[in-house]
Each structure stands twice: as structure tokens, then as C-alpha cells.
Amino acid sequence: MRLPEYAARALCRLENAGFEAWAVGGCVRDSLRGAEPHDFDLCTSARPEEMLRVFAGERLIKTGLRHGTLTVLTEGGLLEITSFRADGSYSDGRHPDGVRFVSSIRDDLARRDFTVGAMAWHPERGLFDPFGGRKDLENRVLRAVGDPDMRFTEDALRILRAVRFASELGFSIEENTAAAMERQADRLALIAPERVREELTRLLCGRWVQRTLLGYTAVIGAALPELRPMFGCTQDNPHHCYDVWGHTVRAVGQVPPEPCLRWAMLLHDSGKPACKTVDEQGVGHFRGHPKASRALAERLLPRLRFSNEDSERILLLVEQHDRPLGDSDKLVRRRLAQIGEARFRDLLMIKKGDAVGQNTQPWDVGTLQGTERLLNEVLRQDSCLSLRRLAVNGRDMQTLGLTDEKIGEMLRFLLDAVLDDPARNDRETLLRLARTEMEEQHG
Question: Rounded distance, CA 385 to CA 403, Å?
Fold first, then answer.
């Protein structure tokens, strides 16, 4: 491990002042597994008031000082330095009510969540690993430090951090730790919705998302209770070989790891359990499930404080995931005029993921690839897809004697004609069409 110059200077500054200092946490974990650390944190025997003296004259952020954390603004970025500490009780199940400063690095590491994050490193003393974090890292195992129930009772966010690490890094979760996560899963209700959204988004975009969603349904159900009816909901349909949750999980992994696409895929069939019917032959049907899925998403997304922009995008994809995109250039032009190129391409990815996630036949994806070729050809032709591109405008309609809302109605009629046949987007042709339509309207 190599400390960047700004962190190494701060560590030396503390030690030259007579205090012990170590690099701790994620930077040690990431360095040991061969990844580039995102940031570097230091831990020190210096108390808050002593840190202030050591770094007097530097630009400092003191908002975390009550809990022992001083942030130094260095030329390399923000550097958090925390006094060795032991946390007090967690009455809100999320934050310590207070902290007690200690003199031992071991005591400080003992309060941390997982062994792979409870290691410290010093450029001369090397690695300090009192809880076996390096071995767990080599074995790709996530294990709570000490009593796992206590760790998750202290801070319920650690439960979501565990499944997020499992998805991002491909770690398995040690048996006792996983059991404690399930026992304490209801405590996820104590976490701020924004933090739940952030952790779940990172989980959904992880490389091992499918294995994680299938392996930790109790945690997922506690974080997103709206999805519980999907677990074990059989589809009883020759088009599906998985239950609703199994299909959904596989579909999630088939779309690019972009947050809105992964959330849309997670929610696209969430309305199926409420819509399920079984006919006399025992075949399951889910009529109206896209609309029901959208209604469920309309409740879930605001609860997790999604932005309006992301919510609108996800809701459109959920509601329209089952709607055809078009198998002719005319139909593709119409869909493009309705939703635009960006959402059209989103839906192509969603529909491909949906198809592969139900163990579909290769020709189903082939049909979507044909639609994509049609899309690219329509875009290459630079066809008129909006009122702005029409060869006539409102003033032209006024010269024909139209006023107010009749102008907009006629322009939309003309756009409809152009979507059917782009060659009609000629001023004289459109004026002639408009006159003919006016004559027919007036008998």
C-alpha cells in the first residue's frame, strides 16, 4: 500500500507531534484487493483539541469534531482524520448517541462493521489486522466484527452495506452474519429513505446483482416491502420458466448497469401478483400488469425520494415495457414521435432484458434487433417526427382561415399524415391536405 503524498504528510505531522496515526478502513481494504482507493482516511490517538493544534493554520472543516472527526482540506482533496474512539449507545438505530475516545487502535477497529474494513496500515509498522480481515478478503467473505446482531442493532445501514458489498465485489456473507442480517432486517425502517435508495441503487448496478437479489430476499423485502408479493409468485405460463421474482432478477442483470434502467427492470413486473388469474387449463395470466406495476412504482419512488426526472423515466419504462415498438418504419416513426429517441432506446434495452430474463427463444431477441435496425434507418433518413419539423406552421394555418385550437388540431393531423408518409412533408402538399380536410369537416 502507498499513501498519497497529502495523506502521508498528515500522518507524519501527527506522529512528529507525538501521536500514533494509521490509515484505516476502505483505503486499506481496496489496496489489499488490488483496487485503487477512492479516498484515504486516517485514525489517530490525538484527541480533537490536539488535532486542532497539530493542523493549526490549515483549512479545516470542524462539523464532525464532536464525534472526533476533523476534515483537512489538502491540495490532494479532503482528508478525514478521526480520533481513536468507541461508540456509545445507538438509540436511533443509526447514529451513536455519543463517543468515548480511547487510546488503542485495536479498540477503534473493534467498533467497525466488517472485518475487511477493520484493518489499519502504517508505512513503517505495516498492516494491523486484529480480526482476520485480510484472510476474509482473500476468501471473499464478509463477516461482522464481533457480535453481528450487535453490529446491526447499532446501525441498520450496515445490513444494506453488506448486500451492496456482496453485489459490487462478489463477496459471500458469512453464515452467522447473514442470519443476523435477517433477524435485524426490520430495523431497515429506521434508515433515511435517501440512504436506502443510494445503497440499493449501488446494489442494483453491481456485477453480482443477480446472485445477491436471489440470495438475500429477506433483506430486499424489508427494504422494499412493496416487492414481497413477487417472491414465490408462480407464473404458470409456457412463456416463463421462473416465478415472478426469479424472472425479475434475471432481467435486471440483462440491462446495462445504469440506475434508471436497473430500477425500471426491478419494478417492471411488480404489479403481476395483484393481477394474476388462472384459467381452466391452469395457465396463469397477468392482464393489465404494466399499469399495476406503474401504480406500485408511483408509490415506491416518492417514498425513496427519487428525483422527478428519474421517476418520470422509470415510470414510462415500467408502464410501456410490454407495448410493441413497431415492426415497420411507419410504426417506428409513430413511437419515436411519441417518446423520442432516448426513451425508445431505453425501451429496447428493457424489452431485450425482459425477453432474456424469461429464458426466451433466440428469435424473440432477434425481433427486437430488427426493430433496432428500423430505428437506426428512420433516424438516418432524418424524417419529420415533430410539429417543429413540419413544412408548414401556425401562420400558414391562419391564412387558411383557422384560429385558436383549430390550428393545433390541423397541425397534428398533418403531422400524423407525415408520420405515415414522410414524402408528404412538403409545403404545397400539406396545404392541399389541410384544405381537403377542412372541406370534409364542413360537409
Answer: 24
